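Bit of a strange request maybe. I'm writing a small parser for structure token strings and I need a real example to test against, not something I typed by hand. Could someone generate the tokens for this chain?
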Amino acid sequence: MQPPRYHLDGTNALQHLQPLLEIEELDAIEWTPQAGIEGGRDKRWYDLYKRIRKGGKSAETIGVSAQEFGPLLDAMGPEGMMILTWGKDQDEAERLYRLHENFGC
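Reply from user aminoacidic:
Good idea to test on real output. This should exercise your parser:
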């Protein structure tokens, strides 16, 4: 069974972040902005991830390309982050794995 998490979807939903952070049973918050603005892996959202982690929850982001993975980990570190990424081929997947290992994950 997965730990409880909440899918926070779109900037209009950000008004609910503080009450969500106060739910003790909630372990993680996945952030997905609406279409037409920067995706969840953009540096625009780094402060949001920091706020989520400071609130005692893990921050999740999806759709992080292989090129965005390293900069996101550099900025945020691995602690309290769940990042969904992919490699377009074996070489790229192995490079992602090495990056992942370099952060002690």
